[in-house]
Every structure is written in C-alpha cells, then in structure tokens.
Amino acid sequence: MERAEERTGKFITFEGCDGCGKSTQLRLFSEYLEKTGTPYIFTREPGGGKISEAIREILLSGKNTEMTDECEALLYAAARAQHLRDRVQPALASGKLVVCDRYVDSSLAYQAYARGLGEDFVRKINAYALEKYRPDVTVFIDLTPEEAFLRKHGADENDRLEQAGMQFHKRVYEGYKKIAEQEPDRVVCVDGRQSVEEVFAAVLAELRARNILQ
Ligand code: TYD
Question: Which of 1, 146, 160, 188 has its CA 20 to 30 A from that of 63?
Fold first, then answer.
C-alpha cells in the first residue's frame, strides 16, 4: 500500500458509537501524553482545521435535515482531505504522534453501513485517505448503542445525527464490528463495559504492545 511520503510519526485513531466513552478516554490519553512529554497533536473529525471545522458545522447542524446521504458522505470526505493536509501530514512529517478522534472508519460505519451507501462508494470517495494515511492503530471502544444510550440519558435535540434513532446506531455498531473483523491487525477492540480506569489501562496496554508507546 502506498504511504504518505514524509511520515516519521505514528497515526492513531479512536472510534466507537455515540456515547461509548471515547471522549473520556481521549481526555485521559491526552493527559497521559502531556505527563510523559510525548510529542503529539490531538485532533478530531469532522473538523481539526478552519475549513474542516466549517464543514463540521454544516454536517452536525440540526437544521440541515434535507441533506442527502451522498452529500453527507462527500462532505465528511472533503473535510478529511483538508484536515489531512492542514494538520495530520505536518505533524506526522515532524515525527509527532497524531491522535485523532474518529476517521475513515466512522464514514464506513455511519455512511457505508448505517446509511446504506455501501462500502464501495465510501471507500472510493475516501481513497486518498485510505491509501496515504492508514492509521497505525485504531482503538475501537466496544460498547453497544443500547448500553451507550443507557449511560447518556437521551438525545440532544439539536444534534441531527442522534435523532436518527436506535436502529441506525445498531447498524453503526455492526459496521464497526465488521471493520474490526476485516482488519484485526489495525483495529484493537477494547471492552467499553469496563470501568473508565479499566478501559484506559487496556488502551495503554494495547498501544504498548504495538510499540506506539514505550
Ligand atoms: P461528535 O459530536 O464529535 O460526536 P462524538 O463525540 O461521538 O465523536 O460528532 C461526530 C459525529 O459525526 C458522530 O455522530 C459520528 C459522525 N461521523 C460520521 O457520520 N462520519 C464520519 O466520517 C465522521 C468522522 C463522523
């Protein structure tokens, strides 16, 4: 597989269903990287730069209910292409660890599987990212949407995506499980039903085992 030309840093992504505890784990991980003096950047998708954040606002606005699934998928891919250029590539080239909250697997789980656009279409529009910026490791926080929603107590009415309902989120989860099965070398599944501390310990252990962390 073709790799980005300049890439000395490692690229890790975090994935999971809405409400799986990913944000808490990312906060703990950032604190850990600060404490250990690891050169890193923390970023997120959709977003992570001026243009990509503007696209994020369009995507996540509760007002854009008439957006087609194809338009949505293309906007995620567009935000990603800009984000890779603005933030990911420069950090990888300077040897930093890039920690990204969501990436192409979100497009596969949400747009390809849950919205039903299919893997081919979503892989095609994300070919640039898939070929040049494959994550070294992807941490999937494995928690079903039923378990996640119990923790979260309902949906935010301004969030178009969360209104889509439980059936949609179940398909997202099944999509993630499929990706994890297809790429066991890249995707690490961490049991999200454990306590926050246990999940975090498992994340660190997996990243050490893969030589991402000392
Ligand atoms: P966000 O508020 O950042 O949610 P979370 O804290 O769960 O990451 O919103 C991101 C939403 O965007 C989330 O519902 C998943 C969705 N998404 C896609 O559907 N496709 C994508 O490619 C990406 C990156 C995100």
Answer: 146
